[in-house]
Amino acid sequence: MLTIRQYGDPVLKQVTKDVEEIDGSVAKLVEDMLETMYAAPGVGLAANQVGVQRRLFVYDIGNGPEVVINPRITETSGEWAFEEGCLSVPGLSWTIVRPNKVHLVGLDLDGSELSIDAEEYQGRVFQHEVDHLDGTLLIERLDEDQRRQALQALRARVLAR
Ligand code: ZN
Q1: CATH code of the domain containing 147
Q2: Which sign, positive or negative, has the C-alpha torsion 23, 52, 17, 38?
Q3: pLDDT tens digit sequence for 59-91
Q4: Which residues of 44-82 are buried (b: 16+ CB within 10 A; e: fewer)?
Q5: What is the pLDDT of residues 11-54, one digit of tens each?
Q6: Assigned domain for 1 exists
Q7: Beta strands in the chain (DSSP E)
Q8: Is residue 146 a contact partner of residue 94, using CB atoms and an 8 Å limit?
Q9: Is a pLDDT exceeding 80 seen at residue 136?
Q10: Does residue 5 belong to any structural domain of this protein?
């Protein structure tokens, strides 16, 4: 089981590097990340959330475990408001407006190309995880009021440690 890095950990702000070779170490990482995600429990987990600077994420939105390696969102459209949380910012959630539909490309564990049209929940998970891999937390997607409240809550949490 891997440790999920929490808000304030610098690894969450770093942009991950593309996976150049999908070898046994990637397969093992994916397996461990899925186990960690299910135990949390969560619906998505990006590699840098477990301290690994590689561009991949795992997710399960109810249809079984999936992985996307070197994911990129190539198109977005529409708008959708959804209450979003994050395993790296546990216990807090906010209604965030993001594009509704996205087109995601990447690779699966066999190195085959993925090309997925997603909307609503799946689209949201993709945007959230790709954000992580770009070093962006959901805090940065909040509006000004939400962000002020979020930072207060997070500061109080750090002081309480
Ligand atoms: Zn997250």
Answers
A1: 3.90.45.10
A2: positive
A3: 999 999 999 999 999 999 999 999 999 999 999
A4: bbbbbbbebebbbbbbbeeeeebbbbbbebeeeeeebeb
A5: 999 999 999 999 999 999 999 999 999 999 999 999 999 999 99
A6: no
A7: 44-46, 56-59, 66-77, 80-85, 93-98, 101-107, 113-118
A8: yes
A9: yes
A10: no
Residue pair 131/137 in contact (Cβ under 8 Å)? The answer is yes
- The residue segments making up the domain with residue 55 are 10-160
Is 84 noted as a catalytic residue in this protein?
no
Neighbours of ion ligand 1 (CB under 5 A): 86
Count of the separate structural domains present in the chain: 1
Tell me the CA–centroid distance for residue 130 and ligand 1, in Å: 10
Catalytic residue among 75, 83, 129, 144: 129
How far away, in angstroms, is 110 Cα from ligand 1 center?
25
For residue 76, the cross-strand partners are 102
Residue 2 lies in a domain: no
Q: DSSP H helical segments within 20-143, as ranges?
A: 24-39, 120-133
